[in-house]
What we know:
The protein is mainly alpha-helical. The chain has 6 helices and no strands.
Amino acid sequence: xxxxxxxxxxxxxxxxxxxxxxxxxxxxxxxxxxxxxxxxxxxxxxxxxxxxxxxxxxxxxxxxxxxxxxxxxxxxxxxxxxxxxxxxxxxxxxxxxxxxxxxxxxxxxxxxxxxxxxxxxxxxxxxxxxxxxxxxxxxxxxxx
Length: 144
């Protein structure tokens, strides 16, 4: 079974025959058993799921840093540059729909059987089966 999945995913070439995906733009995701080795046990469940949104989170962090700089800025020329940077980052955030990141992660977790209280629990508190569900939530958030 694992060899078949590796062939379907393109990780391994078949020794004979061809693989046809229908439709041609079919997107496929599967969760490898090694996934458990890549979980950060100190992260909360929500932070673990959110980790798939690295670009979005980086933009949101940049916005927070710029907001702090803008609040403390006293030089008008520097302020203008900061505001321009803020405008650009804000446009990037809108384009990536960063306002949907957290609700999407929460929804995926809840759909897989986690409850609201679990979202703040450290990954180290979950059994292997629940960690696999967290991995599935990460896949769902990536729109496989």
